[in-house]
Amino acid sequence: MKLVPIIYLLVLSPLAQAQIAIGFYKQERDGLSLYTTAPLTAIHRIALCADPSDNPSDCHWLKPKEFKQAEPVDDVMAEQTVMHYRMSRHISPGIKTGQGIAIINAEQVRRSANSSFIAIAQRKHYKILICTGVEGINLELLDGPRKLHNLYFYLGYDTLPTCEDTGPVDDKGQ
Prior knowledge:
DUF4124 domain-containing protein, 8-stranded antiparallel beta sheet, mainly beta, disordered N terminus, signal, 14 strands, 6-stranded mixed beta sheet
């Protein structure tokens, strides 16, 4: 009796292989800008979510094919280059604010307490924290106690700081 080797090919969807990331969006008169450290080629799905305190209906989901590369932006606070992508249309009028956060490659997103979100990607739960500094918005992506990514969005005007200095350890620099 001859044994024939059987080879199983497991084809994973691009979303199952994609890494989760965060960013910001801003609706402008001539379209929408997306700011993130994720390269456009690694983005498979984008959830655009307004601040939970604004209580909009839901996040708005987009595909990356709607975006074109624009000029990158230096994020001096985080010492990284942030990619800038543009699309010429506006998103759902159900999202009331002109800016908010982008959650890249999540399979599901839900609101959590204290102006944060929980994102599910690759069967893991990630926490996205949002707080304001003196002149901008801080965004952090956490995997348990580890800080995976952080971004800062400069607003150009003073805001009431809500960020606390105590938080998860940033493993990126170690």
